[in-house]
Amino acid sequence: MRRFRAGAALAAAVLAAAGCGLGDAGPQGTAQGGAPSAAVTGEVKGKVTLQTWALKPKFTDYVQGVIDAFQKRYPGVTVEWLDQPGDGYSDKVLSQAASGTLPDVTNLPPDFALPLVKQGMLLDVAQADPKISDEYVAGGVEAYTYAGQQGVYGYPWYLNTDVNYWNSELMAKYGLDVKKPPTTFDELVAQARIMKEKSGGKVYLMSRRPELGDLAEAGVELMSADGKRFTFNTPEAAALLDKYRDAYKEGLLPRDVLTDTYAGNAKLFDEGTAAWTTGGGNYITSLAVDNPSLAPKVVPSPDMGVPPLYVQGLSVSKQTKNPAAAVALARWVTSPENQAAFAHLVSIFPSTKASAGDPFFSRSDGTNAGDAKVIAFASLAKAKMLQPVVVTDAMSKFVRQQFALAISGEVPSKQALDTAAAKCDELLAG
Amino acid sequence: MTHRRWFTPWLLVAPAAVWLLVFNVWPSLNTLVLAFTNAKPLGGGHFTGLANFSRALDDDQLADALLNSVVFMLVCLPLLTMLPLLLAVLVEKRLPGITFFRTAFYTPVVASAVVVAIIWGWVLDDRGLVNGLAQRLGVIAEPVPFLTDRWLLLFSAISLTIWKGLGYYMIIYLSALGNVRRELHEAAAVDGAGPVRRFWSVTVPGVRNTMLLVSVLVSVSALRVFSELYVLSNGTGGPGGRDMSLVMLIQLYSRGFTGHLGYASALSLLLLVVTIGPMLLLLRLSRKAA
């Protein structure tokens, strides 16, 4: 009898725990979000919180100025600004979402916003603000629209893309002309070969392995049209991996590229072991601080294929107590004037159509940093979000692992792609 | 006359008990439940029976991770049980300057595992200290792929773990050696036993219980290895992710907005079972030996 009671008590404890583990985390209680938001009406007043991502202390004056101007424009509103550190931001947002303490306005890149959209935690700003598509560039708005979900779930804030950066000194030293950088992958391999031969293998031109975005850049469709299946295991993708495998075997890439992260490429470029890297339009400006002797030697050129589009945006919590004020704040921060002022401080690009004609972005001041800014701005016109927003960190990791196996020659490229696609499908299905 | 209230002991243990309930018992029970669900960090989940466990059976990476963890344990267990004992016997002697050696052997324990692993990464890198010196001396023509070969990476992490753990277990043995009666050594010496014989016949039986404790600690920590492999492989789990440990795999599945908490919990249960196994075996062996 005592044993039975103990068993029953354990079962009760387990069931109680089950209640904890399986609770519906959505504060709105919608199992699958997407319920249309009510149109935002009412007076702009009350307290709202604005959460940004690693903007303090570099841009404290700018952001505070924007907030002060907003509070002056709407005297009934008090804005509390929270800035989170760069590391662990996704974990922070996740804990806020799970505990129902998401700030009223939060800086969320599109892939962070998607799971919150699915849980019905974000406001459909297109309902609150029907003119959004007229005022913001299409790529920015599209980034916050998701397959299977009606609406737009963030105001595009600022955009960026990748530019190629070449170490002109190393290229000249090892027989390459920085004025004629590679424009295709085959040219890249050919020039990498020259650099390897002339430097005796001490300096590399190529020092990063491909990611899913590289397949997309090469024209491979990563997902099926309905977004339910990964389709990157194509012969074209296998052919690209084969080219990387051959280049790796030939010693055109550092051997530890297989276990290195992308930061490894930037590090090698920084220390003068690699002559090519990619980065945003503001890369040279950052480099001038970290490595002032290298920065003047860097020459930018456009991305070799379809440039990637990176979007940051501000989303509004559906839980906000002051939706009118929250929407007004998100609009205010992402307004053409405020975005342009931000872009004048750092090489990011406004997501508003009104800023497209600003000569500041299309005219270089003659420095290499200015050239990079112009190249990045021009590239934005054809830039696309190369990696689907449903790709999680775990998927990226599995893909990288399989690509590493293919490039090392341990498994055939097609087999590695098949394994990676199957694993991504499994993770996507949950 | 003192008056004792019935709730006084409960009051005294309450802070610790609450802490244990909230941060140990409750999460453990929750993990047990989640292992049978498809729970996600947002939106909860449903009971899926044994689905996570059947998925584990087909998981190639889990097989690799299990193999890595077992190899890790099998190599670390004898080395980290015996080497610190030998080291303790060496530094136990009261010689001039011996404190310096005791401190030097203990220093790696104080250092952060992550920092140490980063330094080892620099040392073992293709362009690192070891390869650079060996190439300069003409010992090797090509760099040894310490960090890019599956097994070399695993054994590099094992070497790091042993190097870092030596001092910690040495201190445990030093305190145990203090309890081995000096008269036994003297009697054995009078009977003609040399240092090696005395070590096996006096020292080892004298610290057998401590050896058991060290064995259990080593096997548990070896099966739960994370930092060393994670940092040496830059978080990638080595080429093809084949150098992942069980904990790395759990971390991979549990993180992020769409973390697979159900599967990660099932892997945690598996880790618990795998960890308890060697402990029970060691206890049984010890009882038999006693």
From TrEMBL, chain A:
Keywords: Cell membrane, Lipoprotein, Membrane, Palmitate, Signal, Sugar transport, Transport. Residues 1-25 form the signal peptide. PANTHER family: ARABINOSE-BINDING PROTEIN-RELATED, POLYGALACTURONAN_RHAMNOGALACTURONAN-BINDING PROTEIN YTCQ. This is Multiple sugar transport system substrate-binding protein.
From TrEMBL, chain B:
PROSITE patterns: ABC_TM1. GO terms for cellular component: plasma membrane. It is a multi-pass membrane protein. Keywords: Cell membrane, Membrane, Transmembrane, Transmembrane helix, Transport. It comes from the Bacteria. The keyword 4Fe-4S does not apply. Signal peptide: none annotated. It holds the Pfam family BPD_transp_1. InterPro entries: ABC_transporter_permease, MetI-like, MetI-like_sf. GO terms for biological process: transmembrane transport. It is found in: Cell membrane. PANTHER family: ABC TRANSPORTER PERMEASE PROTEIN, LACTOSE TRANSPORT SYSTEM PERMEASE PROTEIN LACF. Belongs to the binding-protein-dependent transport system permease family. This is Carbohydrate ABC transporter membrane protein 1, CUT1 family (TC 3.A.1.1.-).
